[in-house]
Design a protein that fits this description.
Largest sheet: 2 strands, antiparallel
Number of strands: 4
Structural class: mainly alpha
Distance between the termini: 61 Å
CATH architecture of the domain at 58-139: Orthogonal Bundle
Number of helices: 6
Radius of gyration: 25 Å
Strand content: 5-15%
CATH class of the domain at 58-139: Mainly Alpha
Shape: elongated
Order of helices and strands: HHHEEHHEEH
């Protein structure tokens, strides 16, 4: 048991977290300004995810899968976009979500005709819609 007359160990030279917040430095101000710039990017990303739900009827999972299928199934060479079928396992691996979820959500995208399906895999059917949505998400 400690007596009241004994000082607390490390109490005099310890800086409380609140006192550190009260003295903002120029570096801290710059970090805060950069964070607010990132907040705007986050706001654009959130709008990109809410817009398809309203206009296209896509859930956030379906939108992510739509982006992933477009990313994996399109290549560009000699100024032309080439679309090739890819496996749903590749989409599941890229996004880190279960294969069954990818299969189920992809079948809905096929029904909505945003994605095509062949025995060799799935591919982006609506390249222009994919490009527009990607543009909104990253700009």
């Amino acid at each position: 048991m400690r007596r009241k007359s004994q000082p607390v160990q490390g109490g005099a030279d310890r800086i409380s977290p609140l006192s550190a917040l009260k003295q903002p430095s120029f570096d801290a101000f710059c970090q805060q300004a950069q964070m607010f710039e990132k907040r705007e990017k986050i706001a654009r990303l959130l709008r990109a995810f809410s817009s398809p739900r309203k206009r296209l009827g896509l859930t956030p999972d379906e939108l992510l899968i739509f982006f992933a299928i477009g990313y994996l199934s399109t290549t560009m060479s000699n100024g032309a976009i080439h679309v090739i079928p890819i496996g749903m396992i590749d989409v599941a691996a890229l996004l880190g979500i279960p294969k069954e979820t990818v299969r189920r959500k992809t079948m809905r995208l096929v029904d909505l005709e945003y994605v095509g399906s062949t025995p060799k895999g799935v591919f982006i059917k609506q390249v222009t819609v994919w490009c527009q949505m990607l543009e909104r998400a990253v700009s």
